[in-house]
TrEMBL record:
<feature type="domain" description="B box-type">
    <location>
        <begin position="168"/>
        <end position="211"/>
    </location>
</feature>
<dbReference type="InterPro" id="IPR017903">
    <property type="entry name" value="COS_domain"/>
</dbReference>
<dbReference type="Pfam" id="PF22586">
    <property type="entry name" value="ANCHR-like_BBOX"/>
</dbReference>
<feature type="region of interest" description="Disordered">
    <location>
        <begin position="72"/>
        <end position="103"/>
    </location>
</feature>
<dbReference type="GO" id="GO:0008270">
    <property type="term" value="F:zinc ion binding"/>
</dbReference>
<keyword id="KW-0862">Zinc</keyword>
<keyword id="KW-0175">Coiled coil</keyword>
<feature type="domain" description="COS">
    <location>
        <begin position="373"/>
        <end position="433"/>
    </location>
</feature>
<keyword id="KW-0479">Metal-binding</keyword>
<dbReference type="InterPro" id="IPR003649">
    <property type="entry name" value="Bbox_C"/>
</dbReference>
<dbReference type="InterPro" id="IPR013083">
    <property type="entry name" value="Znf_RING/FYVE/PHD"/>
</dbReference>
<feature type="coiled-coil region">
    <location>
        <begin position="308"/>
        <end position="354"/>
    </location>
</feature>
<dbReference type="InterPro" id="IPR000315">
    <property type="entry name" value="Znf_B-box"/>
</dbReference>
<dbReference type="GO" id="GO:0061630">
    <property type="term" value="F:ubiquitin protein ligase activity"/>
</dbReference>
<keyword id="KW-0863">Zinc-finger</keyword>
<feature type="domain" description="B box-type">
    <location>
        <begin position="225"/>
        <end position="265"/>
    </location>
</feature>
<protein>
    <submittedName>
        <fullName>Uncharacterized protein</fullName>
    </submittedName>
</protein>
Length: 436
């Protein structure tokens, strides 16, 4: 819940929160004052560059009926009846009148841009000091601070001092407050009371009083701020104007809201609380469904992680089997190649041995025949001549047959080859199977 209690500008727990009527977002009073000053500069710069057309492009989205919070009479008195001084029954309030002044007219109005929805809020001469106090937020913060332990309450508490701080100082937490305006319901230090609340113009009739502190429920809050009463009639708010989104006493309603749609405040609040409770019940059911859904997501996520772990192990196992099969195939192929090498080498060794033996026989016969040819005696030569001629012829035919046969069988290659294309194609098909 603490995120709902933080100001969108300073990102801290609301310190004296004020409500932006058109969009119902909130700001710290000090932050609203700072944003008002910055917005005035930004808007002025846009108008200086774009002229009248630039001014027309700026959309003032404030509700017409909410202007009653900031309407002033000829004497500069606020007429909203709650938290400010009423001016009397004889003065007319220009209700439901659309803002006709351009927002760049700093003499007539000030503007503030909401940080949440970027709505441009038009304010009166009092600027951020005239914004309504966000009482509900103050009460929620007070209850949270009361229910929290002392060490945890410091995250909500913006100041434990019995003397509250000035609400309009530029630097947080500001100086000690010394004066309080009963109409503006704002605390000022001695410096800011002179700069921010001069006793002239519409502020001339405001009543200033010394700060009176108390610690009944909310430390650091004034007694005036703890009890919302109509300063004009001294009554608690009992009527709500649906046209203006305003609540106040019956006297103020009869004077300023005669033709508006009025409802008893307690009845309307009870009705809206019932409506909010019903909406919260639906939202709570959605939150429960979301919690169940979140749990189911976590369960499915855990199961997915478990399944991925199992698949990871399966990938390791099957890849190990493939690696083992490849290693076995490698060993088998190398052994087969070695066997073929040995057989081929043995064949060639045998052929070499046979050729060597035949060569020796041929050489011996050639040398013997040469010696026989050298025999001078014819009769001696004829004893061996015919025989040698036959042997030479037979040996020549034998050589021709053996050389032809050996040359035909000789090859620099063995009768083996290797092609892994089909295996590689099948290996590339190794992938996960999509489960439906």
């Amino acid at each position: 819940m603490e995120e709902e209690l933080k100001c969108p500008y300073c990102s801290r727990i609301y310190d004296h929160p004020v409500l932006l009527p058109p969009c119902h977002h909130a700001l710290c009073l000090r932050c609203a004052i700072s944003l008002t000053e910055h917005t005035q500069k930004d808007v002025g710069g846009q108008l200086a560059e774009g002229g009248a057309e630039g001014g027309d492009k700026i959309s003032v989205q404030g509700n017409k009926n909410n202007e009653i919070v900031q309407q002033h009479d000829l004497n500069g008195k606020n007429k909203n009846g709650m938290g400010t001084e009423a001016s009397g029954a004889d003065e007319e309030v220009q209700e439901n009148e659309a803002p006709s002044e351009p927002i760049h007219d700093a003499d007539q109005s000030q503007v503030l841009k909401c940080l949440e929805c970027h709505t441009v809020v038009k304010m009166g001469p009092d600027g951020a000091l005239g914004l309504p106090r966000y009482t509900a937020m103050v009460n929620i913060i007070a209850r949270k601070r009361t229910n929290e332990p002392a060490d945890a309450a410091t995250s909500v508490d913006q100041g434990d001092s019995s003397i509250p701080y000035c609400q309009v100082c530029e630097e947080a937490p500001g100086s000690k407050a010394t004066m309080e305006c009963r109409q503006c319901r704002v605390l000022y230090c001695e410096v800011c009371i002179k700069m921010r609340h001069p006793a002239r113009g519409p502020l001339a009739d405001h009543v200033l009083s010394p700060v009176v502190t108390t610690k009944p429920d909310v430390e650091g809050e004034t007694m005036l701020q703890q009890h919302e009463v109509c300063l004009a009639h001294g009554e608690r708010p009992s009527i709500y104007c649906e046209s203006c989104h305003w609540c106040g006493c019956e006297e103020c309603a009869s004077i300023h809201h005669q033709e508006h749609s009025l409802q008893p405040l307690d009845v309307l609040a009870k009705k809206q609380k019932t409506e909010l409770s019903e909406s919260l019940q639906q939202l709570s059911n959605r939150a429960k469904s979301a919690a169940v859904y979140k749990t189911s997501i976590k369960t499915v996520q855990d199961r997915v992680n478990l399944h991925c772990d199992l698949l990871d192990s399966e990938v390791e196992r099957q890849c190990s089997e493939l690696e083992q099969a490849i290693e076995e195939a490698r060993t088998r192929l190398l052994e087969q190649l070695q066997q073929e090498r040995d057989i081929t080498n043995k064949t060639y060794r045998e052929q070499t041995t046979s050729c060597t033996k035949r060569l020796q026989q041929t050489t011996a016969l050639v040398q013997f025949c040469i010696q026989a040819i050298k025999e001078p005696e014819p009769d001696a030569f004829m004893q061996m001549g015919p025989q040698l001629i036959g042997r030479v012829s037979d040996l020549d035919l034998t050589w021709d047959k053996e050389l032809t046969s050996t040359t035909t069988r000789m090859s620099p290659y063995i009768d083996l080859d290797l092609d892994h294309t089909n295996v590689l194609r099948g290996f590339n098909l190794f992938n996960f199977i999509k489960m439906k």
